Amino acid sequence: MARRTKIVATLGPATDTSELLEAILRAGVDVARINFSHGATDEHLARAGRFREAARRVGKFAAILADLPGPKLRVKILAPRLLTVADVIYFSLSDSPVDATGLVITEPEMLADVRPGQRMLLDDGRLQLEAGEVSGGRLAARVTVGGMLQPNKGLNLPDTPISIPAITDRDREAIAVAARAGVDWVALSFVRGPEAAAEVRSACNAVGLDVPVLAKIERPEAVGKSAAIISAFDAIMVARGDLGVELPLERVPTVQKTLIAEARAAGKPVITATDMLDSMRNNPRPTRAEASDVANAIFDGTDAVMLSGETAVGAYPVEAVSCMHRIAVETEVYLRRKRVPSAVSESNGDIDDPMTLTACALAGEVGATAIITPTLSGRTAKLVARHRPWARVVAVAPTEAVLQRLALVWGITPVRMTPVPAGGDRMATAVQDAFRAGILSPGERVIVLAGHPVAGGPRFPTMRVVSVGDGGTSTEP
């Protein structure tokens, strides 16, 4: 059975060769994530270029996701520093240290919002401090849980409302690089409200980048406004690393399930991320708990699961992708065998909504093996995919940009559409294109669903049941 859940892999030094990029693509990668919190401009551009070339050689429509730094606080130190319990550490309120032992962070203006007694968590909560008073241009903090602080580790302020703009100067610089790289998606970190969607789109448009935008949910404010954020953005990511630091850890599993359900109901793709197979950075096999974690996200209905350090800096990047692929396939086999209900019943009032649900139900009733959606934007295909049909969802689109973006969405197989003359039958053309791509075989029964069945004609949402004839022609079912 072909895997429906998509795999996102973070690029980095561990996958910098063309051979490794081809290997992870063949192992199952659908989306490459470029983390703009690390690395230089030349590295990002080179990785994007190598990935595009590798995808073309493999013959796969794959997406590139630019993950912006966001207002992520990081400590600027050049060497590891030991923090001992009861020590008092001083953070500068500017870009320069007040004294030789003081710490400087990115976005230091955010420290002005910190109040005495509030928690300051370093390195995903492994080191903990309690904020003290501000004086002399610096914030004092007492170490409550000590350890070794490594360079460039993050600082979380879970008790502190943040007033910094949604788009930072570093984000704008990263967006300019992402535009040069020709990415397919842009992910905004530390989203706090739906208004951030307009800000990131404006910043993208300013440099000529017109792509869908994704909200990373990792702050308590975002969890409380999740429905509005999902409505405003094109997709979300359940970013469990910072989410598990900003929220009580025991809440993360239920928040994950809630966010995935809300995104699916809205017809928006959702990625589940962070530490999914983290032990595979150094080991050729994951832990049993990690395997269960990946499976659980698929049970929840996620569109994609993500690898971070496992493929960026890990010793076993190809093995990590292969392992995630096998877990996903086995989980989906179980779901199909048990006939777990998956369709979303909520409707947004759009005529396409009940039609996509009907197409999925009809596919099951008549034994259709695929649902073919000729599409210009990918919207109809995404609405079909949110119902998680076991019939293959084949999105046939005329532009590479749309096909690459759809690589993120559950169950969708992207296929290039051949040009259709004015007045031509787009639905019949889509079936032929899927046949030529090796997706369909003669004798298969398929559902064809299109908003614009006739090229250049009016929008008349139409559904057909056809059999695939010789050469991919549409014949009576």
Q: Spatial order of the strands in the main sheet?
A: 1-2-3-12-13-14-15-16
Intertermini distance: 24 Å
Strand content: 15-25%
CATH class of the largest domain: Alpha Beta
> Helical residue percent?
25-40%
The coarse silhouette is elongated
What does this structure look like?
By secondary structure, the chain is α/β, with parallel strands linked by helices. It has three domains: 6-71 and 166-336, Phosphoenolpyruvate-binding domains (TIM Barrel, Alpha-Beta Barrel); 73-156, M1 Pyruvate Kinase, Domain 3, CATH 2.40.33; 352-475, Pyruvate Kinase, Chain: A, domain 1, CATH 3.40.1380. The chain has helices at 18-27, 41-58, 169-181, 195-206, 220-224, 226-232, 240-246, 252-265, 288-300, 309-312, 317-337, 352-366, 379-385, 400-405, 426-436, and strands spanning 6-10, 31-35, 63-67, 73-74, 81-83, 88-92, 119-122, 127-135, 138-145, 147-149, 154-156, 185-188, 213-217, 235-239, 270-273, 304-307, 370-374, 392-397, 412-416, 445-450, 462-468, 474-475. An eight-stranded parallel beta barrel has the order 1-2-3-12-13-14-15-16, surrounded by eight helices. It has a six-stranded antiparallel beta sheet with strand order 4-11-7-8-9-6, covered by helices on one side. Strand 2 (31-35), helix 2 and strand 3 form a beta-alpha-beta unit. Helix 1 packs across helix 2, helix 1 (18-27) runs parallel beside helix 11 (317-337) and helix 9 (288-300) crosses helix 11. The longest helix is centred in the C-terminal third of the chain and has 21 residues, at 317-337. The radius of gyration is 24 Å and the shape is elongated. The chain starts with 5 loop residues before the first strand and ends with a strand. The model has no long low-confidence stretch (mean pLDDT 94).
